[in-house]
Write a structure and sequence with these properties.
single chain; 216 residues; alpha+beta; 4-stranded antiparallel β-sheet; 17% strand
C-alpha cells in the first residue's frame, strides 16, 4: 500500500512537471513580439518571416513607399538605379524600439519609436528642383528618357545626401488575432497608414505634397 502511494505521488509529480515544461516551451507570441518579427523581417528582407506575422502574404516596404503606378520592370535605367542604390537601402536601414502594448479582445495596438532617414523631405526637394527647370526641358522638346534622367539626377542628389537618421516619430501598429495568432493588419488599410508613413520616413506625406505641386 505504501509503495503504491509513493508510485502515485511520483506519477502525479511527473505529469505536473511535463505540463509545466510544455507550457513554458511554447510562450505566447504577444502583439509586441509579432511587431518585432514584422519589422526585423522588413530589415532582413525576409518574406518568410513577414508572412508568419502579417495579414497579407507579402510586404515590400519599397513598393509601398514608392507607390508608383508604373510597372517597376518597365522603369527606365536611371530611375531604377536611384531606387536600387539610394532609396531602398536607406528605407530598410531604420532603427526601432518597441513601446506600449494595448490589447482589447481580438484587437491590439503596439507603439514603436522609429528612427530613420528624412526620405519624404528628400523626395519633395528633388521634385521641386526638377519642376524648377521643367519648363526649359519641355520647351527644348526633350524626350521622355531625357526628362526621366534629369528627374533621377535631382532625386539622386537629394537622397544620397541623407547621411544621418534624423526622422524620429512614434508609430502605432494595429493588429488582429486570427485563429489564435496575432498578425499585423494590412499596412495599406487606414488603421496602419500613419505607421507606414512613419516607417518610410514620411513618404506618404511627400506623395501628397508632390501631388499638390502637380495640381497647381
Amino acid at each position: 500500500m505504501k509503495k503504491r502511494l509513493i508510485s502515485v505521488i511520483l506519477l502525479s509529480t511527473l505529469v505536473l512537471l511535463c505540463a509545466c515544461g510544455s507550457s513554458s516551451s511554447k510562450p505566447e507570441v504577444t502583439p509586441s513580439k509579432t511587431v518585432d518579427q514584422f519589422l526585423k523581417g522588413i530589415q532582413d528582407e525576409d518574406q518568410d518571416a513577414i508572412k508568419k506575422v502579417y495579414e497579407e502574404s507579402t510586404f515590400d516596404l519599397g513598393a509601398e513607399a514608392w507607390d508608383d503606378d508604373d510597372d517597376e520592370e518597365g522603369m527606365d535605367t536611371a530611375m531604377n538605379k536611384v531606387l536600387t542604390n539610394d532609396f531602398y537601402p536607406r528605407l530598410i536601414d531604420f532603427e526601432y524600439k518597441i513601446g506600449e502594448e494595448e490589447i482589447n479582445g481580438d484587437e491590439a495596438t503596439v507603439k514603436v519609436d522609429i528612427t530613420t532617414y528624412k526620405m519624404g523631405d528628400a523626395f519633395v526637394a528633388g521634385f521641386k528642383d526638377f519642376f524648377a527647370g521643367a519648363m526649359d526641358l519641355y520647351n527644348s522638346n526633350a524626350s521622355d528618357e531625357q526628362v526621366s534622367k534629369v528627374m533621377s539626377e535631382k532625386l539622386h542628389r537629394q537622397i544620397s545626401a541623407l547621411k544621418k537618421k534624423e526622422y524620429k516619430k512614434t508609430a502605432t501598429f494595429h493588429l488582429t488575432k486570427e485563429n489564435g495568432v496575432w498578425v499585423v493588419e494590412d499596412m495599406d488599410d487606414d488603421k496602419n497608414e500613419a505607421a507606414l508613413n512613419i516607417l518610410s520616413g514620411g513618404m506618404l506625406d511627400a506623395e501628397n505634397s508632390i501631388d499638390r505641386m502637380t495640381d497647381d
